[in-house]
Design brief:
- This protein has nine helices and five strands.
- It is α/β, with parallel strands linked by helices and about 200 residues long.
- The protein has a five-stranded parallel β-sheet with strand order 2-3-1-4-5, with helices on both faces.
- Helix content is about 60%, strand content about 15%.
- The two termini are about 15 Å apart.
- The longest helix is centred in the last third of the chain and has 23 residues, at about 175-195.
- The protein has helices at about 15-25, 30-40, 45-55, 60-75, 90-105, 120-130, 140-155, 155-160, 175-195, and strands at about 1-10, 30, 80-85, 110-115, 165-170.
- The chain is globular and about 45 Å long.
Length: about 200
């Protein structure tokens, strides 16, 4: 099984490229937002803990998210691959995910870092706001989100680079052009995993 993270600033195309890879490879998509909602709806013990934090307006702690993810990952052993969406967002989360997978003799195989110049990110997000009417896609909020990304999430690139799994991908051009840059990287990782399991 291939564990893939798609990484990049808001507007870098993470969601779009995740969908392309799911369509091409049949990977399972794990979204922390969807996972939290499902656990809360099912009123699981972890869901109830998460709901208490959310209802108080707080972020759900990393250990609760990782525990939920661990339970979900254990049910996906026959899956060709998993794409993680929305997690990790910080280095401690990256460390927690790495440790969790190691406990199950698994690892993050591939981190795709979509690199897009800031002016293109702003342009894309403003356009998305016009098209979808998303209230958070305005200039003030966009600048804040990019700032938060730079201060808390960008350091993950160094963390995964040190682990030898980071691949920088030029995230400009058409969706098809970007996907064409990613496919050889994913194919190579799948080939390596196949060789190791033979």
């Amino acid at each position: 099984m291939l564990n893939v993270l798609i990484f990049g600033a808001p507007g870098s195309g993470k969601g779009t490229q995740s969908e392309e890879l799911i369509r091409k490879y049949g990977f399972k998509h794990i979204s922390t937002g969807d996972m939290l909602r499902a656990e809360i709806k099912a009123q699981t013990p972890l869901g109830e803990i998460a709901a208490r934090y959310i209802n108080d307006g707080n972020l759900v702690p990393d250990d609760v998210i990782v525990e939920m993810m661990e339970q979900l990952v254990l049910t996906q052993k026959d899956t060709k691959g998993i794409i993680y969406d929305g997690f990790p967002r910080t280095v401690p989360q990256g460390e927690a995910l790495w440790s969790m997978l190691e406990r199950h003799n698994d690892k993050v195989d591939l981190v795709l870092n979509l690199q897009v110049p800031e002016e293109v990110l702003i342009e894309r997000l403003l356009h998305r706001g016009e098209v979808s009417g998303r209230a958070d896609d305005n200039m003030e909020t966009i600048r804040k989100r990019l700032e938060v990304y730079e201060t808390s999430t960008a350091a993950l690139a160094d963390f995964f680079s040190a682990k030898g799994v980071l691949h920088n991908v030029v995230g400009t051009g058409t969706v098809e052009e970007i996907t064409a840059r990613i496919i050889p990287i994913v194919d190579g990782a799948l080939e390596r995993v196949k060789t190791l399991t033979q």
